Structure formats: C-alpha cells, structure tokens
Amino acid sequence: MIRIALTGLRGHRTRLALSALAVVLGVAFLSGIQLLGNTLTETATGLISSTLEGTDAVVRSTSVQTSAFAEVRQTVPADLVDDVDDVDGVAGVAGVVQGFGRVIGPGGEPIDSGLVPTLVTNWIADPQLAQGALVVGRPPKKPTEIVLDPRTAADEHIRVGDTMSLQGAVGLRSYQVVGIGGLGPTGEDNIGARVVFLSSEQAMEFTGADGQFAFVTLRAAPGVGQQGLADRVNDSLPPGYEAVTGERYVADTQKQAGGALGLLTQLVSVFGYVGLFVGGIIIANTFSILITQRTRELALMRACGASRAQVLGSIMIEATLVGVLGSIVGLGIGVVGVIGLLQLVGNLITLPTTVPTLTPLVVFGSLIVGVATTVAASMVPGWRATRISPVAALGEVAEDRGRGSVTRRLLGMVMALGGLAAGSLALFAIDANARLTLVAGDPAAGTAATAVNLRTVVFSVSAAITLLSFLVVGPVVVGPVGRIIGWPLRLGGGPVGHIAGENARRNPSRTTATAAALTIGVAIATTLAVFVASLVGSVKAGFSDQLRGQIVVSSGLGGATSGGLPEGVIGDVAATSGVDTLARVRFIPATVTGVDGNPTGGGSVSGVDPKPFFSLVKVPLIGGTAASLTPGTVAVDADTARANAWAVGDSISVFYPQVGAVEYPISLLFEGPIGTASFLMPMENLDDVTAVAFRQDALYYISVTPGSDPTVVADRIDGELRRVAPAAKAQLVPQWLDDTVATFNLALNLVYVMLGFTVLLSLFGIVNTLYLSIYERTRELGLLRSVGATRVQVRRLVLAESVIMASIGTSVGITLGVWFGAGLFTVLSGNIAAATIHVPWVQLVVLGLGGAIAGMAAGWWPAGRAARRPILSAIGYE
Prior knowledge:
This protein has 878 residues and is of the alpha+beta class. It is 55% helix and 17% strand.
C-alpha cells in the first residue's frame, strides 16, 4: 500500500501540489510570525540584559499596578539613595529617572507621530551602572544640555552644538546637544522609541518627578554577591521598598517586554490558524475531488483484495506526505519572509543581521501543525473512499451530485437555526452585566474569581456555530443562491452563462466547500468592518450629542503616561479671547476592585472639575447633581454600578501604585459619558495620591463665548500652544473626532492585511477546484468544442463558474458578517452613549465587487488550460 500511495502521488503531482500549497502558505505565515516574535523578543531581552549588565541589585517600590503590557510602580525618593549608599557592601549607587516627551523640530512641530513617545532618562556617570554609551560628544552636565539618540540625530540632521526643543510634563524646554548616544554598550542600539539623556536634576524637573527616581541601581563591592547585596540593603530599607538582585530585575523587565511582544505575536497568529483552517477546507475538498475521480482505481484495489483499512491507509499516507512536504516548504518560505521583514523592521529597531534562529519548537511545531491539519482534513474523504464498492470498478467515474444525506441536512439546519437562536438570546434576553464564573475566588487566600461576560461568550459561540453550519447545510442552499447569483450571467451570457450556472450548482457539496473557504475570510472582514463602523459612528454621535463645547484641546502625548498637557498651559488657554468654559479631563493609573474580586473599569480613573465638566458634558445624573461630587467621593458609571450592585452611599476601593488602596464613598451615578473612565473624581482627590509625573491633563473641553467663531478661537488657542506646548493642538470637535477614530481605522487596515492572507488561500481553493474539475470534465469540454464552442467561449465558461463560486462565498460571508458585526458591537458596546449599528455600505459593495473580480482572477489559469486542450485528445480522455 505504501508503494501504491507513492505511485498515486507521482501520478497526481500537479493536483496534490495545489493542495499542498494551502499547507505551505499556512505554515509559512505561522512559522514566520513565530520567528519574527522570537527575534524581536530576543533582541529586546538582549538589550535589557546588556543595558543592566553592571547592575548587581535594584531598589524599587513594592506598590505596583500590573497590566497585560506593563506595570506602574511608585517612585523612590532621591533621599533614599544616600541611605543605601551607606550600606556595607555597596560600591556604587545611581538613581534612574524615566519619563516621556516629544522632540520638537526646528519648525516648531513634533518630529514624530506620537504613537511611540520619546523616552527621557538621566545620564549615569558610573560606567558599570550606565544604561547607555556615547557615540560622540560628552555627557550632559548643565540643566540646558542634552544627549540625543543617533536615530533622531541622523533623521533630523542634528549635530553636537546644535540646539533643540523638548516638550514634557513641564512644558517646552530648549537644550544644547552636547553628545550623541543611546542605549546598549555601543550607544547605537535602537528600541523603536527615541531616547534622550539629561542630567539627573534636569530629568526630574522635566518629567515632573522632582526628588523622585523610578528605581535605584546598585553595584556590589568585591566579594559581595548579588543576593548578599540585596539582603544587606533590604535590612536598611523602610517599609514599602525592596531590594532585588540584578538578575531578578533583569528577568522581571524581560518578562514584561516578552509578554507584550508575545501577546502581539499570539494575536497575529490567530489569523495564521484561521488560514490553516481555511487550508484544511481546501485540502478536504481536494481529496474529495481526487477520490471521486479515482473511484474506478480505488474500486479495483478493493476488487483485488485490498481491505477498507488498507484503502484508508494509502490515502492517509498520501495526506501525511503532502503535509510533511508542505510544512517543510512553508517553514522555508517563513524563514525567507522573516528575513525580509527584519530588514524593514530594522529601520525602527536594532536587530541582529544573522538569520533567525530555528528553535525546535518552531520547527516541530510547524511540522506537527501542518501535518495534523492535512491528515485531519483528509480523514472524511478517506473514510468515504473505504465505502466504494468493488462493483464501481465496472462503471464510469462517479460524481457526487447529491445535496448530502438527510441526516446532514437536518444537522445543518439545526446548527444554523440553533446558532441564530443563541445569538438572538444573547442580544435580547441575557442581561448585559451577567457574568459567568469560570474559577471561584478564595477570599481566605486573597485570590480573585475568574469570570467572563456571559453575553459575550454566548454570542461568540453562536457565531462560530452559525459560520460552521454553512459547511454542513451549504449543499442545500447553494443551489438557490447560485441560481440568483448566476441570473445576470444567464441573462447576458447566453448558453455559456447558462452552462456555467448549472456547472456551479450541479455539485453543491464541492461548490459549498470551495465557497466556504472564501466565506470565512469575508465574514471576518465584514464583522470587523461593521463593528468598527458602529464603534466610530457611535462615538461620534455620542460626543456630538453629549459634548456642549465646540473645541477640544488634546495633549498630543498620548495621555498621562506620556506627559499630558503641561501644568502651565491651562492658564494661557483659559485666558484666550473667546474661551467661555473650560473643563479638564485627566486619566490616572488606578485599579478599582469589583464585587467579584476582579479589577473593573479598566486601569484608570478620570479626574474632572465637576461643575465645568457636567456643564459641558450632557449626561443623566442619578442620585444627585454635579455639586454632589465633592472632594473625597467618587462618581460611578451606572452600568458598572449595576454590574457590582453598588448604590449611592456605598464605598469602593481604589488602588493607586503611589499610595496603595484608598476607600471612597459613591456620591453620584451617571449614565456613561464616552471619552472618560467608568469612575470620575474631583481633581482634589488625585493630587495627594498621584505621582507628580501623572498630574497632567489629557484633554480640555472648551465652549466659546456667545457670538464667537469657534474656528477663530481654536486658531488663537493654537497660537498660545505653539509657544508652550507645540505637540498639543486645539481642534473643533468634528476634527478632533476624526483624528481620534483614525486609530481604529489604522488598526482595521492592519487586520485587513492579515485577512488578505486568508482570502488569498481561499482564491487558491477556487483555482484548485476548477483545475481538478477540468480533469473530470475533459471529455465534456471536448464535446463542447466539437459541437462548435470556441476557445474563447470555453474560457468564458470556466471564468463564469469561478465568478459564481466567489460570489456565493462573498455574498454569504457578507450576510453572516453583518449579523456577527452588529451582534458583537451590541454585546460589547457597554456604556457607549448613542450606541447604534452602522453598516459601511460602500466597503461592503467594494468587498462584493472585489470578490467577483478576485474569482475571475482565480479562474484565469484553469480557464486557459481548459481552452487550450485539443479537441480529439479531450474526447478520447479516460
């Protein structure tokens, strides 16, 4: 049977190569993403290790707020440095300042987009504790001196001796460049962000952290190990601070960097697994067609004494070899692709010039996933092959023209109706705040419960079932859908259009499998398009309805974690002619604990001035007025309060990295204004619990005096901002909203690129199906030519079939995607004001037309082969 299987592979090389192509592309994508992620992680962790190579111990705060990407810790007082320096065994000590800013170009405009802010830190003189190195020049010594990273210096043509400006928490500062240098032992390593070095005192002042370090690094005296140094220092530290070994600190920092990059890799890999699933459908369809074409061959094997197990075994051997070959080729393409990507990414981050390391996990993982996908996809066609009767060897090649068994049709209908019913239940019957507890909490041990939103889970499962039901029930509906889609072709294409429509419908199982591959990609793309369009539309509508002001001033620094609006800006803006009311909004890192022990409301709270804020933001207030939100109290979004059974008068616990947990009574409930966190506090609450570096406002909402032109007032404010904070900008509300939601569209475009991989696989599925069906219909096409059909008509026939298959997949995918996107947004919209469904009709029309065009492109090569077949050889083909 092994010899027979190998002979079968040699006899169907082209057909099986097309099948293996699905595995090749899927494995190439997955292995490439894994290799890219590993390389980025190794580079980031290696840079961290080399930067902190001379650090034997680190003193840091024990008060920390963690998230999926990073952690926020309380700072360390500068006075602690002298105390630590006196500890026996400490040979060197240096405090490290960390903050953010924006480099301002000669023209007064920021030189970067602001998506990755500039890292501001202090230059450390101790060579062993220094986190960077000079390329040219000297370290900063005066408050007006700065060391600039090589990338920024090269991009902006800045040299030693030039002056430059930097905007941060305290506004705009001008510096003289005295050196060019950066992170790492050579000073030329690039982490993607820009880096500037100031003197320690100036770095503290610039970042708003006077007298505070992010952490303190220590160098041990000869003969003192890292653990011994940490133990000695811990004995002298006050409560709230700890000393950890340099190895432990490096490992913690590397874990954070690796976790963020790993999460990104995992998210991107999802599209790779979707692609492999689509590839599995294509493989199953390919083997199904091949088995149908080899009915007589397999029947002869049975007639010669082969058992069902042997027939199945020969097919599994073919599938395994196809999977192995496709996985190996895919892994090779993935490596080549990553090398190219690293060349592009290398413009942003310093990467090794060597070929990415092929770890055993990547190699064997790629082989296992690729082979398992191929074998699993071929199991059902292989099992069907074992049911071929030896008598079939006496007849013509069979072709499955049925719509599936009654059981299959009933199962498909149950799945489709059940999925739609479950989705409707999630949308209209399950409470928006209902949660499903996966793991119960243990109050005695201090562990929180693990819970998920029940509505989201039910709808997600229903969407998956509904999408998969098309694979089962598709043969029943593909006929009517194909007839509707093929109507224009029959109407305008004459006999060719009529035959093409009938060909697409005469084998509904095959057409379903071919169209389903495209359906999945289009459904996901449509879901995201509808979701993002609804989110963007609802956000815009909500702001337009709630915000009474006409102007928004934004920091251009990404919020509090990147500096915010400098403290001195508010006076200049408020004094601008035409400004009537100004309401500040501030975002502070904090965590609120819900009734189930889990964090709720995100990782921040919003600081506001209640009177001007509620005068400019129109939201229903429950249980009081704006005056109810007094210092020492908190206002909670009504949906969040309902989810936690909170009411006015209850107390909640808010954890700040700076001071720990603080209790606040709830003085007011509000119906969710968008653009803020779920918790509002008076600004007076935050000054004592927030580090100075986070005391900047993110936004100003502004209303103009009656009779003033908002455009003129915004221009005046911009003029003031250019003097003190050039990265900030004043915009009319519609302009600000367009800039704000542009991030969603950017993310959506990146997702479309990932989904393009799935669609590409789907188009190969169409190519594969048409190519294989031409072999089946060689005699039929020859007869068409013999009765007068021209080569052009044969080409048009195959192209029309391709368009019909692609249109079926696209139309079903768009229909399902609209339902999924609308439902997903309804489930996740939460407290978004004016949450309404928005269907991006233009995008969907473009998607539909693109599907038809792509289908025609996919059918071009098979159509050409069909048209070029000689008439006599086609008629005599067996």
